[in-house]
Amino acid sequence: MRSQNFNSDKPLLYLVATPIGNLSEMSPRAIETLQNADIIACEDTRVTGKLLSFFNIKKPLVSLREHNEVSEAGKLITRILAGEKVAYASDAGYPCISDPGAKLVQLALQNGINVSTISGPNAGLNALVASGLDTSHFYFHGFLNAKESVARNELQEIIKRKETIILYEAPHRIMKTLNMLFEILGDRQVCLARELTKQHEEFIRGPLSELVELDPTTLKGEMVLIVEGRKDEVKPDLNNEEIYQMVKNFVGMGMSTKDAIKRVSEITEISKNQVYKIYHA
Ligand code: SAM
Questions:
Q1: Contacting residues for 138 by C-beta, under 8 A, at least 6 apart
Q2: Ligand 1 centre from 220 Cα, in Å?
Q3: Cα–Cα distance for residue pair 156/215, rounded to 1 Å
Q4: Is the separation of the CB atoms in 116 and 15 below 8 Å?
Q5: Ligand 1 centroid, distance to 20 Cα (angstroms)
Q6: Nearest CA to ligand 1 atom 11
Q7: pLDDT at residue 198 above 60?
Q8: What is the DSSP letter of 93?
Q9: Mutate to test the pocket of ligand 1, among 15, 16, 20, 91 (most ligand atoms within 8 A of CB)
């Protein structure tokens, strides 16, 4: 179905992207949209309340977050259909990107309401474009599951991807995640982007074997991990010494020799027998 947003009588829901740290990244259009709204729906009224008071915007706030998204979305749809102007903002960056909002959008569209986006910052894209890794194709995964066994299964799928991978991570889990990535994906190039757009913005670029050695106390704040995609052409170039070292690294991380050989065989697609022979030669 075709529907123009600004040349139509249809009601409109506004999705407003907000700064991921630096408030100067709030666009004039985002400010204007919030100023013109009758109600601002948001993930956390305290977080958006602070943003609004910084820009001197006074509007009624309604909370719409993961736990009440379906019920609150229904109420907002009724208000939009009754003629009220509703804008939705999550805590930071784009709504619907590892944030609530997608159910509200779906319900709006089902009810004949148009949806428009006010552009703004996104942590994953900021990190990707400065990572130095391939930007021509990328895969956004967001957060790995908090349960390790599920996260490991997710990584078994991610390992097959040739696109650059975007992961969100929390500081208390970053070392565990880096070690898991090294173990499952092998020694790929990564870029850890920390505190984007803020005073302590930092990019840590290098192979996973280096990043797993970082001092965890220096990895604070918000962070994104950009991971190199699978490179098939690397495999035939591996020499015996490199294969031996890969097994040795995994053993050094606490794996049994048998599991380390199996892992290297999976990563390199060289038979387990062959990896065994190289390791024990
Ligand atoms: N909607 C947001 C977006 O468009 O990027 C993402 C929200 S998600 C709940 C929050 C995660 O995004 C953080 O845990 C972190 O991984 C990443 N993130 C948000 N702000 C960041 C920043 N300033 N620097 C680095 N990562 C950030």
A1: 128, 163, 164, 165, 166
A2: 13
A3: 27
A4: yes
A5: 7
A6: 168
A7: yes
A8: B
A9: 20
The structure's pTM equals 0.85
For the segment 32-57, what is each residue's pLDDT rounded down to a tens digit?
Answer: 999 999 999 999 999 999 999 999 99
Cβ proximity of 99 and 43 under 8 Å: yes
pLDDT one-digit tens code per residue, 125-180: 999 999 999 999 999 999 999 999 999 999 999 998 999 999 999 999 999 999 99
Cα separation of 106 and 23, whole Å?
A: 29
Per the CB < 8 A criterion, the answer to whether 77 and 12 are in contact is no
CATH of domain 12-121: 3.40.1010.10
Q: Is CATH 3.40.1110.10 the right assignment for the domain spanning 124-227? A: no
18, 26 in Cβ contact below 8 A? yes
